[in-house]
Amino acid sequence: MAWFARAAPSGPPETLSPTPAATPAQSATSGPAANPLGTQEPTREEPGAVSADEEAEIGEGAGGSSAGVADPDAPPAGRGAEPTPSELRRVRVGNSEGQGANMRREPSAASERVKVVRDGTELDLIGVDRQAEGRTWRNVQDDTGAAGWVLSELLLEERVVGPRPTPTPAPPQIQVTEISSPVGRGEAATLTIVTRPGLRCEVRVLLFGPAVAPRRGLEPKVADERGECSWTWTVPDETVPGAWRYAVTVGTGDARVSREVTFGVT
Questions:
Q1: For 155-186, how does the pLDDT look when each residue is reduced to its tens digit (9 = 90+)?
Q2: Domains present along the chain, CATH in parentheses
Q3: N or C: which end of the chain has fewer CB within 10 A?
């Protein structure tokens, strides 16, 4: 009978390592996964925090012009449906910590400030929103007629308050810019006014000594593109010295507006 011997292994003895237990997969609700790259996670603002850009538009704190970056997927605060010509939408000033909101002439933090609107003030939306400097601005008007742009973050509770009223134009104004008074008899008198461009303008004497009032030079005119109307006429030699009242009238029909001016005749 033959005997065979087993050859010893030539290398170091083989060792067996225990198989690690499988790590259970982390569920979606168990918390955020670790950052494998070790990069810094972006910080999140606490709810209700006021950004530096918003603070610049709160009350007397205006003056900053740095632009904030808005989340493109999130609608701007206070943003709703755009106003239409047939309905009146209204918003209320808020989120300003009691300081009020700046109303700007144009949608920009660097634009001229029209006024500071107090917290709780209701404003009418009079135009579509505008995007400028990375923020949303809303075109608003208050009860006094002051109009401008306010950051949407400072406007709350958009609501429809009824049909948009038909705007009624303000009555024309008459501003006297030149008057030759006193003026001597037989001399040229001049009267210049400024009103709304395109309006019919008339001037006539209310009280006059002679039987015939001066007509040449006092014909009706139409205000030019600057709203200016001017008349020059000769004071009759027969005019009694003293104060003479002239009526200036602009417009037509129910929209007529009149103003008296006084000439001193020497």
A1: 987 777 666 556 667 788 999 999 988 999 99
A2: 53-163 (2.30.30.40), 175-265 (2.60.40.10)
A3: N
